[in-house]
Amino acid sequence: MTSIAAEHLASKTPIVLDCDPGVDDAMAILYGLRAPEVEIVALGTVWGNIDVDTATVNAVRLLEIGGRPDIPVAKGAGRQLIGTEPTFAELIHGPAGTGSTILPPPSGQHTGEHAVTQMIRLAYERPGELTLVAIGPLTNLGIALATDPGIATRYKEVVIMGGAFLWPGNITPVAEANIWHDPEAARIVLEAPWPVTLVPLDVTEQAQVTGEMLDQLRDTNTPAGTHLHLISYIYLSAYEARFARREAAMHDGLALAIAVDPTLVQEAPLTRVDIELNGAHTRGMTVADLRPIPNLERANARVVLKAEGNRFVRRWFNVLASWD
Q: What is the pLDDT of residues 228-263, one digit of tens each?
């Protein structure tokens, strides 16, 4: 099997997804709804790409587009733990997280449960079973740990789209957006005693979806293909202005894929990762000991430095193109 190791198709990986949709979140969520190795148990929303109210509406709409309105959506934190009013990524994701389009509201709505409460509840209902995948700022996770530190022993693993190590940041020269948005929460998450895998810009920037691929998805006339093509114009244009290529990184999709298919990972040292909180020019920087012989006694995260991004993109495209 060329797209994913056969043993990982034998069973689904149950995922609690914390997200801020967002164009690349939409790419990840719709993939997760269709890929046979993924079981999305619940979505929690958080501020980040856009405000949390709009992110929640988008999450509910995506589940309806994907034919899974039964999956619960819980609205979470609307701002970072400490600091000024939050800023959003309108130039990348559009004012409503759907590019340049204004879409009608979904038929359904969120459950009314807070995303933090949902995260804690599910940890106790299914101890040792669930993988927590965070593809937005880590505010919900930080609050959940502060509320009940015991959840750190009840999640099987935490996979985070976040950080930049041997690659430039995407919001400052040294900081990646999800970590920079709430570095205090990120530090709380990394200090907790649960297995953490960081999927940073070092690998997500190597997983590129092209405008041609999105055109092909549109031509499938599926709800998912039509929606992703519709919302991706600004996202692709922002990358084209920077790199002169009409293609864009699939940050969140790669993190979700690695959570369910570890064979995508080629290099991921276990090491110590700290979050810079105070530097005038380095706030939000992920600082890691990547020397050949790190101090494993203090290691708190696995950092993915090399991954098969192209294999994931092919897998992503084939999954969505075959949606019936």
A: 999 999 999 998 888 888 999 999 999 999 999 999
The domain total for the chain is 1
Return the DSSP state at 47: S
Distance CA 77, CA 281 (A): 26
For residue range 108-141, list pLDDT tens digits in order: 999 999 999 999 999 999 999 999 999 999 999 9
Residue 118 has a CB neighbour count (10 Å cut-off) of 24
Q: Assess whether 8 carries a catalytic annotation.
A: no
Q: pTM for the whole thing?
A: 0.95
What range defines the domain where residue 22 resides? 6-321
Backbone angles phi, psi at 273, to 5 degrees: -120, 125
Alpha-carbon dihedral sign for residues 310, 29, 35, 211: negative
Q: Which residues of 221-238 are buried (b: 16+ CB within 10 A; e: fewer)?
A: ebebbebbbebbbbbbbb
Assess if residue 1 is contained within a domain.
no
Give the whole-angstrom CA distance, residue 67 versus residue 47. 25
Residue type, 118: Q
pLDDT per residue as tens digits for the range 275-295: 999 999 999 999 998 988 777
Cα separation, 203 vs 251, in Å, equals: 8
Identify whether 296 is part of a domain: yes
Residue type, 296: L
CA distance linking residue 280 with residue 261, whole number of Å: 38
DSSP state of 31: H
> Residue 272 domain-assigned?
yes
Q: Looking at 8, 93, 251, 281, which residue is catalytic?
A: 251
